[in-house]
Please model this.
Amino acid sequence: MKDWLEFLIKTSREVCSAIRPIIGSASASEVVGKGAGGDWTLKIDKLAEDFIINSLKKKNISCVVVSEELGIMEIGSKPDVYIVIDSIDGTTNAIRGVPFFCTSIAMSRGNFIKDIDVGVVLNLSDGTIFYAKRGKGACMNDRKIKTSDRASLEDAVIGIDFSKADEKVIAKLMPLFRKVRHIRHFGANALEICYVASGSIDAFVDVRSMLRVTDIAASYIILKESGGLILTPDGKELDYILEPTQRVSFIAASNPIIYDNILKIIELGK
Model:
């Protein structure tokens, strides 16, 4: 593939057109199977994923597909790249008609998240697109983006996913809840990380070890190319293997200062 970024952008936009007729409809939530990640696969997820897979096949692209629904599948002969797909991130929003859900596609040269070269995240409700290519910066709708420089937690906007978190995780996060005035969670983690990349929010925290690596693969490179950082809760680079069952914990931050401030607050909750 000569231009991976162009292909992933085009495919994402075509997915948007393909699923638009069933967004918010009863048929969108029809269960059609069980995904490799362990969750039920809904009709809207399958429709989007099938479209992406068919696009790869039509272009005769040799690759290893890593998908939350499909699992791992080789296409073509002697594949030397990985295509990491979350066909619909924020499925509940999509089937309920809440306008915050996306498709997320990444291309990686190796089978670890640190090997990702290209990422595209498209908000399927309004067409807003985020994308990045290693070493080339990140964009939103063809405009270069960068993270915020806000350092204070008191007036920061922080996204936190604590859905189904156990009591120990909630206890760890409680000091952060008390400190930060503006807590958010919109229901599509890949898109929320992109909002950190664009400077709309200042950080996004998910320390539940429940999110899959497929959910954040594309937004990972988008955030890094916008000047942000996404690290483990103990300050290490993400070193997760690209498998649909791989679970992750991370803090995505706009800058090192706000990351350190979040980490200090979370540690106080131990």
Summary: The first helix runs from residue 4 to 19. Residues 178 and 213 are 29 Å apart (CA to CA). Helices lie at 4-19, 43-58, 91-96, 167-179, 189-198, 213-225, 256-268. Residues 157-268 form a domain with the D-Maltodextrin-Binding Protein; domain 2 fold (CATH 3.40.190.80).
